[in-house]
Design brief:
alpha+beta, about 50% helix, 3-stranded antiparallel β-sheet, Ribosomal Protein L30, Chain: A
Length: about 100
């Protein structure tokens, strides 16, 4: 349904494009407990990589310590994978076996 001025064609294209948009899949980032990584280092990771305030970082660290895991946040796939890689690099540099993973929500 094109018109000479092209207005109807542009409106139709915009509607088709909007219909194809989908919400991105979201992934939960999880820290796992071990018997060697210090609590201070976990808080440092949470404040440095995940930009958590000190109080929230301490709460998550205690979840990791007491429950075995702590949920750090929910992100899109690219961000979750990047955060997990950053934790892995930081832990290796400091010689801690801290494990971080992500799973689809």
């Amino acid at each position: 349904m094109s018109e000479e001025n092209g207005v109807a064609l542009e409106e139709e294209s915009a509607v088709d494009y909007q219909a194809e948009l989908e919400e991105p899949r979201m992934f939960r980032v999880i820290l796992h407990n071990d018997h060697y990584t210090t609590m201070d280092f976990v808080v440092e990771v949470l404040t440095g990589i995940f930009h958590k305030p000190a109080a929230e970082a301490t709460r998550i660290m205690l979840d990791v310590h007491k429950k075995g895991i702590g949920i750090v946040g929910v992100y899109t796939l690219d961000i979750a994978a990047t955060k997990v890689a950053q934790v892995d690099i930081m832990a290796r540099e400091r010689q801690f076996p801290l494990k971080c993973s992500y799973e689809e929500v």
